[in-house]
Q: What sequence folds into this?
């Protein structure tokens, strides 16, 4: 990820993540810190804001060499349990 972003750890799988915000809603979103060829998220100039890219934006980004990222929900084994603001699964070391 460009520049130094605060790296955190996923509470489910322990992977490194970087927090960003969706530019319209300012909703926090965890990203995998490394760009990927099949990404659909573009970092905006007004960081830490990101945008889910349209098909044309993805084509332009690839043509221009702009890095694309994916939300950690895609790569985390527990990602679908975290979507939509849910508290997510308990970590192995958490107890009631």
A:
């Amino acid at each position: 990820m460009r520049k130094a972003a605060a790296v955190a750890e996923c509470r489910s799988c322990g992977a490194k993540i970087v927090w960003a915000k969706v530019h319209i809603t300012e909703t926090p979103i965890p990203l995998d810190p490394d760009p990927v060829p099949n990404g659909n998220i573009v970092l905006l100039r007004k960081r830490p804001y990101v945008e889910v890219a349209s098909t044309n934006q993805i084509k332009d980004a690839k043509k221009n060499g702009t890095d694309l990222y994916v939300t950690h929900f895609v790569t985390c084994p527990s990602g679908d349990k975290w979507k939509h603001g849910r508290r997510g699964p308990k970590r192995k070391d958490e107890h009631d």
Remarks:
- The two ends are 36 Å apart (CA to CA).
- The chain has a mean pLDDT of 80.
- The beta strands are 7-9, 16-22, 28-31, 41-43, 49-52.
